[in-house]
Amino acid sequence: MRARIVSERSEPADGEAGFTLVEMLVVITIIGLIMGLVGPRVLNYLAESKVKTAKIQIESLSSAIDLYYLDNGHYPSDGDGLDALVRRPAGDEGWNGPYLKSQKTPLDPWGHAYIYKTPGEHAPYDIASYGPAGPQGGGGRLLTSEAR
Fold it and tell me: φ and ψ at 31, to 5 degrees?
């Protein structure tokens, strides 16, 4: 008796080689529809979180400026700006800083410096952020310390 060797088919039969073009287009269309519905919501949450982060940073800077005022009897000048919270300005003998944990003043969530102005429009000082457009964006201030 002879042994018979049966080989398994190594090539798939016709129609089993992969996905058809129509199947691929259907899947891509479904993914596109899902992204069209979900994408704007995710981007909106991202924008909202940056605004909330800026508000929290402005609150933190406001608290540090208030501590500076308690120690020195005056708010930092426009010339010294927010840097007075981390480096002693000339002539401030009562300075007991740094008033921020970091060694430099933070940037807003969009990478721009906060604007500090004393006296402020409705308060002794204003801290503002121009938002994603930055100062050259031409828009008004996005957030100010007045909103606290």
Answer: -60, -40
